[in-house]
Structure formats: C-alpha cells, structure tokens
Specification:
The protein is mostly helical. It has eight helices and no strands. The longest helix has 36 residues, at 135-170.
Length: 184
C-alpha cells in the first residue's frame, strides 16, 4: 500500500502548517507522526483535532487504562493498523492484559475483564456497531463514570474514528511496533 499523504518536506510547509506542526511537537506527543501527517494538509483541522485528542487521551475523565482500551476497540472496528501499532503497547503498559488485547485483535470478547473494562468494551461496540448505546449500558456507564465520563468516552470513540478514517483514506504508513498487526 502506498502512503497517499506522506510526510511533507519542512521547507514546503505554509506558515499555518508550520505553526500547527510546532504546536503538536511542543505538546505531549513530542513529534509529528501517524494521523497528523495527513492532517497537516489542513492545518486548522489538525490543530483543532490535536487539541481535542490531547484532552481526551491525556486528561479525559475515564483514565489512561480505559482510554487505551477504547482506542484499541475503535482501531479494531476500523481495521486501523497505525492506531493499533501505537496503542496496543500503550494499552499493555497501562494495565490491559495481553490476552485481552489479543482477543480484541481477533474480534473476540475478552474473558476475565474487570467490570469497568467490560463496560467500556460494550459501550464502544454498541456505539460503533449499532450506532447507539442501550439504556442498560448507558445507565451503567453513567453510574460508573458520571456524565462527563460518558461524554468523554463517546468523544474518544468519535475522535479515534476520525483519525482512523483519515489514515485509512491516506493509507498512512504503519510505524515499527512491538504489536503484531491486526489480522484481516
């Protein structure tokens, strides 16, 4: 697969692209990579998206472990290899068991999930596959995470869906990773 919207030479960047790249590099990500390479073609979109993602990923109401789980579930739904390559190791480092990661990759429901992990799993799959969340899952999420947590979780799924759509369109190159690629 050819990377349709690969890296741009710095000297070819517009002032707006340079500023968007600078903001990204100076933030917690520390580099211009993954979805931000194709998004740089629209610097205002990239700057806006990366600020949303910075909040959802690093400061969102559900915490890093569940955030990484939701990202993996979204990557699997979209067959998004870049997100998987980046976030499967981060999920493991944040406490998601490898057998859970492997089950998600194989499109199986993981066994032995903690109650909060099972809730995130169900919420993500309902929203991605049914395009809604059942009353029971919503009530459980509301009780566990509160309104902000429910909104942050839905926003996280939407944000990583946006990134998956951009990278799937761009055929973004997959970085080296310790994670096995997603099976077809």
């Amino acid at each position: 697969m050819t990377d349709r919207l690969g890296p741009l030479p710095f000297e070819q960047l517009s002032a707006a692209q340079r500023e968007a790249a600078r903001e990204l590099i100076e933030g917690p990500r520390g580099a211009l990579y993954g979805p931000f390479v194709p998004l740089l073609r629209s610097p205002q979109l990239m700057a806006t998206a990366q600020r949303m993602g910075e909040y959802l990923r690093y400061r969102g109401a559900i915490g890093a472990r569940l955030t990484e789980l939701a990202i993996l579930l979204t990557a699997r739904q979209w067959n998004q290899q870049v997100e998987w390559a980046v976030h499967a190791p981060l999920a493991a480092a944040n406490g998601i068991p490898q057998d859970c990661i492997d089950a998600i990759a194989a499109r199986r429901r993981p066994t032995g999930m903690a109650a909060d992990e099972a809730l995130v799993h169900d919420f993500c799959l309902e929203l991605q596959q049914r395009r809604s969340v059942s009353d029971a899952t919503y009530a459980h999420a509301l009780a566990l995470f509160g309104e902000q947590g429910v909104v942050d979780l839905a926003g996280l799924i939407g944000y990583y869906t946006l990134l998956a759509m951009v990278m799937n369109t761009a055929q973004t190159a997959v970085p080296p990773s310790g994670a096995a690629p997603l099976p077809e």
